[in-house]
């Protein structure tokens, strides 16, 4: 089968590799669609980060580079390993793409398996990936979805679950006002979850396309261009002088972090959802004087079932966020290049590893 293989910084190759076979307790999936994530771009530009090197394996899989990429994907079950009897060939599924130690409790009550030592992600740290025609995944990480959800939209359930967990971390509730810094994929899906839960959403974003996308998709009540408006002043105007109850930093840009601090009300909650590749110049005095509650969020933990339900019940429409579809051969030149150099023109670009659906 064909797969996108990560060799090193700025070195991703489309190659022929052996088809996987499902071991006991595993599910074989024909990949339908796989999204390109900001983390993939970080690996390409600045990595390896989650990916292994040629000499240093990831801590749990033992794999060294090259590894297959892709962790935002949907597909159809095509085979079942020994002992898997609660799925059937033909089921539509998405994957919670974790690589986690066998000794870690990952049951439905766990709230911290995503923070366990050595945690990594399928499609980054090894164990196959969604930027391939097929993948074998442990049953624990495979989630059945209703076939009424189109498989291209289903590929966005993984980033949507990131947004769901970020909202969960914020303790936002119906009637609150949220400010989101950045209307990229994670900002937009976070907004979608907030709107589904009755929160008023204000988004700050430079890109006209992404601001319009937030409005057209119905996930933002107000959008602000930070080049032409004072974002914090606009938030106070919209909240009768109070400020936002919660804010989500989705850019890893210093000026955005500063703006969110300004726009939050006293005792507001600031959730950092982006991956920072550098240290922030954080104004600790402002945090203290406003009693801001600063929280980090990473990925998800037992959030997929609730997120899938939101989509199946029609409370979130993922279709508006898909702005491009490409084949595996266009991954770098059409996909990565667009998202790195012209990211104001796109939101989520999906890849069809088999070429079907293009």
From TrEMBL:
Domain of life: Bacteria
Chain segments annotated as coiled-coil in the UniProt record: none
Cofactor(s) for this UniProt protein: Zn(2+)
The keyword ATP-binding belongs to this UniProt entry's keyword annotation: no
InterPro entries listed in its UniProt record: ADH-like_C, ADH-like_N, ADH_Zn_CS, ER, GroES-like_sf, NAD(P)-bd_dom_sf
Keywords: Metal-binding, Oxidoreductase, Zinc
SMART domains hit by this protein: PKS_ER
E.C. code: 1.1.1.4
Enoyl reductase (ER) domain segment(s): 7-328
Pfam families: ADH_N, ADH_zinc_N
PANTHER family the UniProt entry points to: GALACTITOL 1-PHOSPHATE 5-DEHYDROGENASE (PTHR43161:SF26), SORBITOL DEHYDROGENASE (PTHR43161)
The protein's name in its UniProt record: 2,3-butanediol dehydrogenase, R-alcohol forming, (R)-and (S)-acetoin-specific
Species: Brachybacterium nesterenkovii
């Amino acid at each position: 089968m064909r797969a996108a293989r990560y060799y090193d910084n700025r070195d991703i190759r489309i190659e022929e590799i052996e088809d996987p076979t499902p071991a006991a307790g595993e599910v074989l999936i024909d990949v339908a669609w796989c999204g390109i994530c900001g983390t993939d771009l970080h690996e390409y530009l600045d990595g390896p980060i989650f990916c292994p090197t040629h000499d240093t394996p990831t801590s749990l899989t033992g794999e060294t580079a090259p590894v297959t990429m892709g962790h935002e994907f949907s597909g159809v079950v095509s085979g079942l390993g020994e002992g898997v009897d609660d799925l059937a060939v033909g089921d539509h599924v998405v994957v919670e793409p974790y690589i986690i130690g066998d000794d870690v409790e990952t049951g439905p009550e766990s709230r911290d398996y995503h923070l366990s030592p050595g945690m990594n992600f399928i499609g980054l740290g090894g164990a196959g990936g969604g930027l391939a025609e097929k993948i074998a995944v442990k049953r624990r990480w495979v989630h059945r979805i209703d076939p009424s959800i189109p498989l291209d939209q289903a590929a966005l359930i993984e980033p949507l679950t990131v947004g769901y967990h970020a909202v969960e971390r914020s303790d936002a509730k119906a009637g609150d006002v949220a400010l989101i810094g950045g209307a990229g994929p994670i900002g937009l899906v976070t907004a979608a979850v907030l709107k589904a839960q009755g929160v008023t959403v204000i988004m700050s974003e430079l890109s006209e396309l992404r601001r319009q996308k937030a409005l057209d998709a119905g996930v933002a009540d107000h959008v602000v261009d930070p080049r032409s408006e004072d974002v914090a002043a606009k938030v106070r105007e919209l909240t009768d002088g109070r400020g936002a109850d919660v804010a989500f930093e989705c850019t890893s840009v210093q000026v955005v972090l500063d703006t969110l601090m300004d726009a939050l009300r006293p005792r507001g909650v600031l959730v950092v959802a982006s991956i920072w590749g550098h240290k922030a110049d954080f104004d600790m005095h402002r945090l203290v004087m406003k009693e801001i509650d600063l929280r980090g969020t990473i990925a998800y933990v037992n959030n997929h079932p609730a997120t899938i339900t939101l989509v199946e019940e029609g409370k979130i429409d993922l279709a508006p966020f898909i702005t491009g579809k490409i084949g595996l051969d266009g991954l770098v030149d059409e996909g990565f290049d667009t998202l790195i150099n012209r990211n104001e023109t796109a939101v989520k670009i999906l890849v069809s590893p088999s070429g079907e659906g293009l």
